[in-house]
């Protein structure tokens, strides 16, 4: 039957609004103009009895919803390590939705599954990981960590002659989990989801950059026996720092531990030959999690779980049934992710990688790291501001004022920056108090954008310092 006139108009209006938004977003203040209460008044309420014109619905969504949008895709958004959704990824995402493929099995939808397999191959190559790895494209690093922890759980228990898929965890040998004291909350969530518990862990002390201390790791693991899972970090959320993989992984190997690396954003630095020494040894782990919607700037949501051995991942994730397609000539995404019903979320990344190429990805990551270094140097020259991290990738963490004054001045400066609205760094709490976090990660972010950032920070600090007699 095809599309009706109204449906065609609705799709065209959505595309027109999308283009208009992207054309103008750089000129907009970053914060939403309305709060959730006002958004509820505009967009909530009771459902109408009769249907409405499709194109009019799209226009109303934009008219009522625009003021409630945070402009994550702006090149001057520096918060939360959020990628800026590359335009070609957006274009491919539209195709992905239009095609409406349930992309678990190649027999049903060869185009989308082959494209996603290509993304897996290309990303593994870019990241310098073993070519034979098993890979699943998931919603993001939280689920990537979860899938990897579940694969580790299965493999470790199988070594102890326990089939967790058949017998569950009741009565299973205890898995000892070793994790850094400053590991990201996503790994705690992964341990909860996998039934291992977020608090039943051995926490290793970290240095002033949040990196696991090798001496304390050695001391922590030496008396542990049985199945052991070690979780390392490639990209501390505040410092961007890397655990010492080349030192820790050999120690873990002597205990037959499974080593997993949470590399949500920081693993991408391994794609840059000039910077990859910062992650020496990371390729020797057993599994990794990485986001595509962060440094690759894919549209939300997309991430990857990667395991050196594909079989434990398939055992943990796949769900076979008589009505489902059988195995074909390529690896099925449904075998390495927890969803049977899934959109082909790897297609936007396919388009981005084809558009940028290896060189484009490497140059973007290297540029962001260089810009972060520049920001840190500029902020270090402003009296009263303290940069806390050695810039290992794209993160800069700093606070305003000293002593008890830090607790008041730092949030006040961040609020002043947000109220001005030209840039958006985000908050955190690290090394004794509140911090301001800068993440340089948008695909369009340039030297001009970080200059605007530093100028905004200077103005906010001058204003707050004067108001608080902190000059």
Question: What are the defining features of this structure?
Answer:
single chain; 471 residues; alpha/beta; Aspartate Aminotransferase, domain 2; Aspartate Aminotransferase, domain 1; 3 domains; five-stranded mixed sheet; 14 helices; globular
Describe the structure in your own words.
The chain is an alpha/beta fold. It is built from 14 helices and twelve strands. Strand 5, helix 10 and strand 6 form a beta-alpha-beta unit. The strands form two sheets. A seven-stranded mixed sheet has the order 2-8-7-6-5-3-4, sandwiched between helices. A five-stranded mixed sheet has the order 1-11-12-10-9. It has three domains: 67 residues; 259 residues, Aspartate Aminotransferase, domain 2 (3-Layer(aba) Sandwich); 109 residues, Aspartate Aminotransferase, domain 1. The chain is globular.
Report the total helices.
14
What structural category arises from helix and sheet content?
alpha/beta
CA radius of gyration: 24 Å
Q: Provide the number of structural domains.
A: 3
Largest sheet composition? 7 strands, mixed
CATH architecture of the largest domain: 3-Layer(aba) Sandwich
CATH superfamily of the largest domain: Type I PLP-dependent aspartate aminotransferase-like (Major domain)
Residue windows where pLDDT falls under 50 for at least 5 positions: none
Overall residue-averaged pLDDT value: 95
Which percent band covers the strand fraction?
5-15%
| CATH T-level fold name of the largest domain | Aspartate Aminotransferase, domain 2
Helix-strand pattern: HHHEHHEHHEHEHEHEEEHHEEHEEH
Number of strands: 12
């Amino acid at each position: 039957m095809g599309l009706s006139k109204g449906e065609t108009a609705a799709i065209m209006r959505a595309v027109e609004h999308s283009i208009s938004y992207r054309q103008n977003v750089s000129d907009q203040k970053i914060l939403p103009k309305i709060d959730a209460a006002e958004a509820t008044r505009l967009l909530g309420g009771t459902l109408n009895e009769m249907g409405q014109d499709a194109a009019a619905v799209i226009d109303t969504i934009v008219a009522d919803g625009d003021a409630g949008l945070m402009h994550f895709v702006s090149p001057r958004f520096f918060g939360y390590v959020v990628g800026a959704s590359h335009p070609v990824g957006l274009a491919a995402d539209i195709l992905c939705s239009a095609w409406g493929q349930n992309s678990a099995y190649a027999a049903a939808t060869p185009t989308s599954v082959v494209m996603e397999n290509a993304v897996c191959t290309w990303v593994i190559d870019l990241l310098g990981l073993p070519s034979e790895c098993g890979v699943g494209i998931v919603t993001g690093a939280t689920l990537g960590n979860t899938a990897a922890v579940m694969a580790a759980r299965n493999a470790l228990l199988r070594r102890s002659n326990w089939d967790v898929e058949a017998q569950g965890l009741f009565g299973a040998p205890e898995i000892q989990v070793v994790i850094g004291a400053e590991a990201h909350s996503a790994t705690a969530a992964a341990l909860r989801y996998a039934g291992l518990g977020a608090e039943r862990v051995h926490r290793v002390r970290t240095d002033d950059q949040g990196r696991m201390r090798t001496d304390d790791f050695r001391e922590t693991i030496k008396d542990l026996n049985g199945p052991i899972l070690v979780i390392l970090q490639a990209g501390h959320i505040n410092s961007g720092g890397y655990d010492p993989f080349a030192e820790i992984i050999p120690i873990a190997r002597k205990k037959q531990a499974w080593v997993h690396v949470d590399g949500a954003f920081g693993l991408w630095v391994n794609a840059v030959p000039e910077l990859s020494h910062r992650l020496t040894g990371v390729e020797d782990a057993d599994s990794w999690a990485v986001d595509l919607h962060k440094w690759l700037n894919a549209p939300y949501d997309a991430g990857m779980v990667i395991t050196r051995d594909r079989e434990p991942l398939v055992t943990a994730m796949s769900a076979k049934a008589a009505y489902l397609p059988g195995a074909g000539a390529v690896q099925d995404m449904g075998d390495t992710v927890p969803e049977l019903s899934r959109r082909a979320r790897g297609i936007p990344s396919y388009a981005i990688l084809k558009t940028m190429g290896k060189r484009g990805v490497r140059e973007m990551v290297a540029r962001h790291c260089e810009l972060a270094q520049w920001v840190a140097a500029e902020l270090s020259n402003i009296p009263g501001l303290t940069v806390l991290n050695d810039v290992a990738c794209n993160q800069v963490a700093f606070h305003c004022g000293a002593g008890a004054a830090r607790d008041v001045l730092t949030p006040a400066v961040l609020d002043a920056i947000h109220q001005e609205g030209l840039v958006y760094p985000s908050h955190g709490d690290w090394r004794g108090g509140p911090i301001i976090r800068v993440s340089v990660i948008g695909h369009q972010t340039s030297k001009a954008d970080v200059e605007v950032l530093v100028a905004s920070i200077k103005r906010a600090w001058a204003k707050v310092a004067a108001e608080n007699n902190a000059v």
